[in-house]
Amino acid sequence: MTKVDFYILGAESSEQRQLFACRLAEKAFKLGHSIYIHSEDQAQANALDQLLWSWRNSSFVPHQLETKETDSNAQGLLNIGFNRGQGSSTAVNGLLINLSPTVPEFFSRFERVSEIVVQSATVIESTRSNYRFYRDRGYPLENHDLRK
Length: 148
Fold this sequence. Notes:
Blueprint: E1 3-8, H1 14-30, E2 35-39, H2 42-54, E3 63-65, E4 78-82, E5 93-98, E6 110-117, H3 121-136, E7 141-145
Parallel strand pairs: 1-6, 1-7, 2-4, 2-5, 3-4, 5-6
């Protein structure tokens, strides 16, 4: 069963949310996990693509924007997509980092799902809704309060 982690940040900005997604992706990549970042839209996917190249000088996480032509089964690549369900193309995946305001319909194909919460009313509302969704269906949930 998919395990769901909520990372609660003290920051308010979407930029800090995206930076944390990069940090989480890098950690999972170093541990050998396959990673899919589900973005809200094309603009956010493009911003993450650029951010992964520049967020830290000492970091390198091979990645690609996922399209209909992209091989999402490519080994060693982090895929970034949005609202197309492209992340569902492989039978079982490692980590889904969800930056979309809703739970992707294909989330259960992943061993783990990470939801990143920043102190923005919109993000808090959507991640609370996502929390209820997972909880009501019996998925194991864990909160990581990083505001301390």
